[in-house]
Structure formats: C-alpha cells, structure tokens
Amino acid sequence: MHLRNALRAATALSLISVGAAQAETITIATVNNGDMIRMQGYTDDFTAKTGHEVEWVTLEENVLRQRVTTDITTKGGQFDIMTIGMYETPIWGANGWLVPLDDLSEEYDVADILPAMREGLSHDGTLYAAPFYGESSMVMYRTDLMEKAGLEMPEAPTWQFIREAAAAMDDPENDINGICLRGKAGWGEGGAFITVTGNSFGARWFDEEWTPQFDQPEWKAALEFYVNLMNDYGPEGYATNGFNENLSLFQQGKCGMWIDATVAASFVTNPSDSTVADHVGFALAPNAEGVDKRSNWLWAWALAIPAGTQKEEAAKAFIEWATSKEYIELVAENEGWANVPPGARTSLYETPEYLEVPFAKMTLDSINAADPTNPTVEPVPYVGIQFVAIPEFAGMATEVSQEFSAAYAGQQTVDEALAKAQAIATEVMEAAGYR
Predict the structure, then answer these.
(1) DSSP state for residue 307 in the 8-state scheme
(2) How many domains does the chain have?
(3) Single pTM value for the model
(4) What helix, strand, coil percent values describe the chain, rounded to 5?
(5) 236-248 b/e with 16+ CB inside 10 Å = b?
(6) Full residue range of the structural domain in which residue 315 is found
(7) Are 47 and 124 in a shared domain?
(8) Is 4 inside any structural domain?
(9) What is the mean pLDDT of each run of 10 residues along the chain (435 residues)?
(10) CATH number for position 238
(11) Residues 124 and 158 in one domain
C-alpha cells in the first residue's frame, strides 16, 4: 500500500514537472471592446488549468488591424494569437499565414459553432480562426423616449421611420441626440456602417465586371440620406465616432437610437454601466422603402494563430479555453447570462436561461438574416456584406472611408467624396488587374 502511494506521488510529481517544463507565456493581440476586456479578467482561470501565462496587447480597432496585418505580412512574430475577423481569416488562411484549427479536441465541439460563423472563418472547409463572439447589427433605442414621442418602433423599421423617430426624439436642450451612428474613418469602423447603409439603398461597391459604382445614384441617395440624418439629429463631431464612442454616448443617455453591433446589447442593458439600462428596446437594422435589403452586417471577432509561432500548442489551448462552452458558463456564473459572449455557438441559443435575455432572439434573427453570398440588391462578384472579400479591400476601403468622414465633417460635399471614392477604387482595381 505504501509503495503504491509512493508510486502515485512520484507520477504526480513527474506530471507537474512536465507541465511546468511545457508552460509558456503567450502574447495575444486583441481589440479594446468590452467582451475582450472581460475575457482578460478571467485569464487566471486559464493559467490555473494549463500553467500557461498570457501577455495582452490591447488596441483600438483600427490600430489592431494595422498592427496584426503588418506583423503577419512581414512574418514579424510579435504575437502567438491574433484577434481577427471574417475578412482576414479566409484570405490569410489561403495564403498559409495561419495555423489550421483542424485538430481541436472532441470536447471543444467544433460542430456547435454557428454555421454562419464557422463558414465565414474557414477556407476550403478548414477552420482558421475560432469565434470569440459573433454579431450582426441592429437598432437599439430608448423605449421611454419613443413612447414620449408617441411612436412605436416596428420590428423591421425603414430608414424613413428611423429619420422620423430621430426627429421626434432629438432634444438638444437636454443633450439628447435623436440618433448616434458611426462616422469614424476605417474600413471596419465607419466604413462598415456606410457600406451596409449603401446595401440597404440598393448600392454596391462593384458591378459584376468589377467596375466601381460610387458614381451611381444609389450611392448618392445613401450618402446624402446619412449625412442629412446625422447633421440634423446626430451628435457634434460624429465624423470621429466609432463603436466605443457611440456606446459611451448611449450609456450616458445621450442617444435616442443607435444602430450598431448586436454585441453592444449586453453593455447598454447593464445597469452597472448604462444609465438607461431599463429603457432599451431592439429592432432589425433598417431598409430603405422599396428596397428588399436590410443594413445589417455579419462579423465575428475570432482568435487565430499566426503560422510560425513557436508556441502553437499553448495558443491552441488558449483558443479552446476562450471560445468554449465552459467559458460561456464561467461568465454566466459570475456575471449573468446577459453578459456572455453572444453569437458564436448554437448551444447558447438552446439554453433556456439565455433565451430569457431580452436581446437574445433579435441577435440570432439578425445574424440569420445576413447573407454574405448575396449582400446587395443587384448581383455582385464578391462575398461579404460590410466588406468585399478581396485582399485589396482593406487599404482601398480605408481611403474611401476617409473621404466619407471628410464629408461628414463638412470638409467636402457628398458629390466630391463620391467622386474621390470612385477614383480611388478605379485606380486600385486597375492596378490589381481586376479590369
């Protein structure tokens, strides 16, 4: 008996020493959004389970995209895990720049990832990034202000109703803007928002011959509507507002409506952070009257491993931990079901406690309504709703978004911004050989 105990102790010690020898410190680049900040607070749980330590590099969205793109294209090797999305993942996976996630454990249950997320983060059927959370976009609005205005938000509003409601709720004397929307330059910031707004007015980036379409009337209608809406009922300086700036404004009670990522719902309804938590309603992203496309997008912030990392095993262990069913349960246990990362796993939407969360169904309906293979009214040669899934898009769209932001700031007219966008896109596409 004593011998058996001694053997067990020796085995346990050898396992601990092997674990210690394999313990790594991994460096993760991530975006400064609320769910990512929350994840960092639980890192001790991961370290306790695996022995691996984590160093975080937390960056504003535009800066993150620039840093990780530079690092992976130059093989810089600064990061063991990168937070990227549906635009980068298939392109980088096809280039051999990411480690395939084709050997995750059976317990992890890859099949449980929502199909829209799994497909958007794969190339040729191979998963290259695991979604931490998934999102579409939707309308978030102040139910008390809507009621005061004598209006009722439809489940599927038009842009024309949104303008009417913004006018009715706008109250400058009490520092309430009728509506808060993104204007910040960056292809994934204000660029994403104006692209889906364009979709809902019948616009598109390119026709089937890859000819840029900014000189077409649909783009003029979309951009003029947006500029007029925001100049009339939006906050001062909206040209520099992105997701986090508008989240802060809404939480402070300074917006009648906000149309943005579905993931924001948990933050605007959290009484610890939001002064209007008890007065928030939700609706599908709007469409223009007579146009059968809504202005909602499809996105996942996901975790990927750059090829060439020396810490692949530890990086995979972190991804399995952070994007697992168990992580969702950990957050639910500590902070309530409303605060778990949404939109990534089918099982979450089969959990009775989660389905009681007021925005759960609208989030899933918005995700399911997004079709990246059919994003516009007229046919297009590309995949992607708020982006065009070609390598040239990020640089080109960042430049275009800068011209649009200049129009929002009153530095140029809508016509001037669209003419410059047409010239930018034409030059890029001709240089790249699309035309």
Answers:
(1) T
(2) 2
(3) 0.91
(4) 50, 15, 35
(5) eebbebbbbbbbb
(6) 23-135+299-355
(7) yes
(8) no
(9) 42 38 90 94 97 97 95 95 97 97 97 95 96 97 98 97 98 97 97 98 98 98 98 98 97 98 97 97 97 95 96 97 98 97 97 96 94 95 96 97 98 98 98 92
(10) 3.40.190.10
(11) no
